[in-house]
Design goal:
The protein is an alpha+beta fold. It folds into 2 domains: 57 residues, no CATH class; 130 residues, 2-Layer Sandwich (Beta Polymerase, domain 2). The protein has 7 helices and 6 strands, in the order H-H-H-H-E-H-E-H-E-E-E-E-H. A 6-stranded mixed sheet has the order 3-4-5-2-1-6. Helix 1 crosses helix 2, helix 1 crosses helix 3 and helix 4 runs antiparallel to helix 7. It is globular.
């Protein structure tokens, strides 16, 4: 990694942790602030994630583990409630970089794309419908809720990406380092039993 990429990665990591930014916007803003606007200078997400782990270890070691645990427990609660839709946790909470600024991101693999909405309506749960990019680049529905997190004493965003059941077949493909991008409830419970452990290899 070039010195420019390293500089951008560390500046982006601070924004990710301190402001809750996603990697893409954090990288672009960091590059702009540093005057490093060449596309070849942008680090990849793996490099930013490494910098995020470093930042957390140096500046947030006394608070982040408890916040991550609270968010993982909240995710597990909702995964249990949504078990019929084969929920998988993804994002910072799954990867282990989350703080209280991060939302819970679950992917639901449904036989019927409207079945999760129907269940939420039946239970009187308020949500908003948006869209996000699916696994093949197509736009898919994303249901967004605000749910209480007693352990953090504040509300947390919960986003449910609605995917087709067939998408589950490729969902656990590992990344370049052999780590999974998402996990089901059983995998999350393993992390909860050893909260300091890294995301397991697929």
């Amino acid at each position: 990694m070039s010195s420019a990429s390293t500089e951008i990665a560390h500046a982006a990591a601070r924004m990710v942790v301190e402001e809750g930014l996603e990697y893409g916007p954090a990288k672009r803003r960091a590059a702009k602030q540093l005057g490093l606007t060449g596309r070849g200078d942008l680090p990849d997400n793996t490099q930013v994630e490494d910098a995020v782990f470093e930042y957390i270890e140096v500046f947030c070691a006394d608070t982040q583990p408890a916040e991550l645990l609270a968010l993982r427990e909240l995710a597990a609660l909702w995964m249990g409630r949504l078990a019929e839709f084969r929920p998988h946790l993804t994002g910072a909470i799954w990867r282990g970089t989350a703080t209280r600024l991060n939302d819970v991101h679950l992917q639901l693999y449904c036989d019927d794309s409207k079945s999760a909405e129907i269940m939420l309506l039946d239970k009187g749960v308020a949500y908003e419908v948006g869209s996000t990019k699916g696994p093949r680049g197509e736009m898919v529905d994303c249901l967004s809720l605000t749910v209480p997190c007693p352990a953090l004493n504040e509300p947390i965003g919960l986003h449910l990406t609605i995917l087709d059941r067939d998408d589950l077949r490729g969902a656990l493909k590992p990344d370049a380092r052999g780590r999974s991008e998402r996990g089901d409830l059983a995998a999350l419970q393993k992390l909860l039993s050893a909260p300091a452990a890294p995301v397991p290899a697929a």
